[in-house]
């Protein structure tokens, strides 16, 4: 990945620059009330060396490319849409994880205004990294509906033909 290549930015109502996702929105996903955290959208700011897009480009872009992500926004969009658990991290931050062989993880924290969850950092980590962190939320397992037994009812013509064949008459 090239440094700061073709990243689309937009400013919010406060003039803060945020990265746009593939749909042209600054909202990459959502934390909802049922997740035991304040509900708000997930956003990634342009940031600096400590957080956001600049931090992730400088510190994690090569690793993410090795895992098949062409750019930082595609990784943020993937994790924001598919996370399977939220765990406490440190200093009022949380981990959004897509649990796999290695966890695809975003570090997020609620903005000072409490209007959005900002992406601090992210990467691909061994599952041991967060094993002992307190789980705040797990995506419920999707239950497949029980199969419904449907008896095959023959058409009336089939019944008449079967009855005639049984009695030795042909139609």
Q: What does the model show?
A:
The protein has 171 residues and is α+β, with helices and mostly antiparallel strands. The protein contains 3 helices and 9 strands, in the order ββββααβββββα. The strands form 2 sheets. It has a 7-stranded mixed β-sheet with strand order 3-4-8-7-6-5-9, sandwiched between helices. A two-stranded antiparallel sheet has the order 1-2. The model is unreliable at 143-167 (pLDDT under 50).
Strand order of the largest sheet: 3-4-8-7-6-5-9
Q: What is the subunit arrangement here?
A: single chain
The fraction of residues assigned to DSSP E strands is: 25-35%
Low-confidence stretches: 143-167
Tell me the radius of gyration.
26 Å
Largest sheet: 7 strands, mixed
Mean pLDDT: 84
One letter per element, helices H and strands E, the order comes to EEEEHHEEEEEH
What percent of residues adopt helix (DSSP H or I)? 10-25%
Output the number of helix runs. 3
N-C termini distance: 75 Å
Shape: globular
Structural class: alpha+beta
The tally of strands reads: 9
Provide a brief overview of the structure.
The protein is an alpha+beta fold and 171 residues long.
Question: Key features?
Answer:
171 residues; alpha+beta; seven-stranded mixed sheet; two-stranded antiparallel ribbon
Secondary structure: elements and pairs:
Blueprint: E1 9-11, E2 17-19, E3 29-31, E4 40-43, H1 52-66, H2 72-82, E5 85-88, E6 93-98, E7 102-110, E8 117-126, E9 135-138, H3 156-167
Parallel strand pairs: 4-8
Antiparallel strand pairs: 1-2, 3-4, 5-6, 5-9, 6-7, 7-8
